[in-house]
């Protein structure tokens, strides 16, 4: 009998969080890499040849998802359940501010009085 196809990945994006569910039951945590580059999350899985009922098989996949712009990238998390379901999630920032990306501009406010630093 042919094994059932892997579950389709599910992406859920609601008001307060963004979640990806991915069936990776053929892969162990060491076989998986998850990285965020700018507005994309990349999930890569690869395992070397191993034996199954029909012979030897090796598998590899690459998936890329666009992160919503209001996801807080400093709070992303990724976990692998015992039954092989990878869950990648990040909370969404509620304010109108953009979420923390790799570059942020800090406004410079001008003070009228001199600083209290001792003059050299």
Automatic annotation (TrEMBL):
GO MF term set: metal ion binding; structural constituent of eye lens; unfolded protein binding
Main location: cytoplasm
Signal sequence annotation: none
Pfam families tied to this protein: HSP20 (PF00011)
Compositionally biased residues, Basic and acidic residues: 100-114
Top-rank taxon: Eukaryota
Compartments where located: Cytoplasm; Nucleus
Gene3D superfamilies (UniProt xref): 2.60.40.790
Database matches in PANTHER family: ALPHA-CRYSTALLIN A CHAIN, HEAT SHOCK PROTEIN HSP-12.2-RELATED
GO CC annotation: cytoplasm; nucleus
The UniProt record lists the keyword DNA-binding: no
SHSP domain span: 1-109
GO biological process terms held by the UniProt record: lens development in camera-type eye; negative regulation of apoptotic process; protein refolding; response to heat
InterPro entries: A-crystallin/Hsp20_dom (IPR002068), Alpha-crystallin/sHSP_animal (IPR001436), HSP20-like_chaperone (IPR008978)
Stated name of the protein: Alpha-crystallin A chain
Family to which this protein belongs: Belongs to the small heat shock protein (HSP20) family.
Keywords assigned: Acetylation, Chaperone, Cytoplasm, Eye lens protein, Metal-binding, Nucleus, Phosphoprotein, Zinc
Annotated region described as Disordered, given as residue ranges: 90-120
